[in-house]
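During the second half of the funding period, the structural biology subgroup turned its attention to how the target accommodates small molecules. The most pressing case was 2-deoxy-2-amino glucitol-6-phosphate, which had performed well in the primary screen but for which no bound structure existed. We therefore specified the complex as follows and requested a full 3D prediction, including the ligand pose.
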Amino acid sequence: MCGIVGYVGDQPAWPIVVEGLRRLEYRGYDSAGVAVLEPNGRLQLRKTVGKVHGLTADFSHPEPSGSAGVGHTRWATHGRPSETNAHPHTDCSGTIAVAHNGIVENYLELKTTLQQRGHTFTSETDTEVISHLVEEGVHDGLSLERAVLRMSELVNGPQAIVAVREGGDDSICALRLGHAGGVAVAHYDGQSIVSSDLPALLPLIGRSGQLPVAFLEDGEVAVISRAGVTFLNKNGRRVQKSLRPVSLEDVLVDRGGYRHFMLKEIMEQPQAVVSALRDRLDFAGGRVLLPDLEMSDAEIARLRRVVLIGCGTSLNAAQVGRHVIERLAGITTEAESASEYRYREPYLDKDTLVVSIGQSGETADTVAAMQQVRESPARLVTICNAAGSQATRLADATLLMRAGIEVGVASSKTFTASLTILNLLAMRLATARGRIDAGPGMAGPGMAGRGMLDELARLPGKIASILSDAEHIESLARQFHHYRNFLYLGRGVNAPVAAEGALKLKEISYIHAEAYPAGEMKHGPIALIDREMPTLAIAPRDRLYDKMVSNIQEVKARDGMVLAVLTQGDTQPAAPVDGAIHIPDAPEHLTPLLAAIPLQLFAYHIALRRGCDVDQPRNLAKSVTVE
Ligand code: AGP
């Protein structure tokens, strides 16, 4: 949830750590801080409330000049955003500085014990107990890394920390405990860096264009220095870790001329679909290959159940996937929030395929649910955008989204990429189970594979045509932006798209938006309908079109305004609407990939009109690595 960075090398640490924090700001942005070990051997701390740029806005002191430092960008869990609660946190003597991502679940108990032993606390955070526990270790004569390891035995919950101390050898110590989100470590040419995510490693990529990176596992410690990096396991023994090459492309984040990352990412969706399809289709043979699923036809034929799990947007994608897999592949499919699933003690056997969905691969609830599945005989696959993330390391196989880095906190292109891959998965399962015929014709007993592939291939063009109508959607946003409540309705495969549209509006414009399967409306939400609560209805020309038209009529009969997503050509819908957005015609199971696009643009333009921070909405973070 928070972002941590540590740097030691032959360059001043301050600009590198601050720039790293700026690149990690999507993880949390309510306050930030840096501690630099100065040439005089003393730690200098700088903190700010709000975004990272506040750190560089203070011209009353010279910039720290030391070449070892740690930094943090915060998403508050314990204690409101304030300079006092901003990390890094120090011990009683102010000689140890710690930046932390995670929650110390037993911090109250530890704090009481430490206070009884004479420690003085200055913040309301859970993190501060870590600084004082490390202090005790150092006071007992342990090195920083041994003190960190001793502390790690006392704290409960997933944690990632970086720590630096006065009076040591300028090295920085990093620890990962449990599923605390990634901790990436790299060393190149006299410089070492540690960070919650790859973008902060940019300064080390240099001219080579590539950097070997290691990721800490549960209980591991990295000691980074100018000379290199050493890794210790939880018992304090040195371990060798395999390194993964990371390229400039993996770490570069750039708005590409757009006003916001979110708009850029919405506009990148045709390419996101192309990337998700690449190398996974055999057009001539009319088959989906999906080799990365790593399952034979015989293994697929044995499956009795598919379970899809995820959180937020990824959960909405899972709900769409449930419809598509059941419909195409004829397998019982469930979709559930990973935050519920992890506590459900679900029955899982070897005939079950569990698929986790996640942009980051680091969402704490999703990772914990995956770990539970890992202990069962079920096969575990992940659909993920972050290669090397915890989800990819836990799964038997990874279906990479390949959407490119998504910086906007509100997901857009990774939703589309997830849906694309869920369609490929459904088709792969359907083919292995004899429900889709390969080849160009309709001759066999199943659906025509070649025709279905052609429809997939048409998606990027169709999405592009919706994006080219962005001005119309912007004008609707202008018309609707002052409402304070919205109802989103959809049916069947588009009911979860209504949920995703409402989630986007809530997240970035702070407007209350409720989503319901349209058939549920008359069971309660209809009581809300009046002139002040517009309804956004997803009503493409599919099997359920007439039902959606009835729902629209019910809203209109109660003086409600209706904005409808309709199929192109449906210019005079059977029920009157106050605004229409048209999407190209497509097979029903693919309509979510089209209907989602105008809802993203609608939310974006409403948020802009309301002056909201689109890329970094309040209270949110890109990777939710705490429970
Ligand atoms: C989506 O706009 C949100 N940022 C959020 O709901 C997100 O989808 C959720 O936290 C899950 O993240 P993940 O896909 O990285 O697991």
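Two results from this model are relevant to the next phase. Residues 311-314, 358-360, 363, 366, 409-411, 507, 623-624 surround 2-deoxy-2-amino glucitol-6-phosphate (CB under 6 Å). The mean pLDDT is 92.
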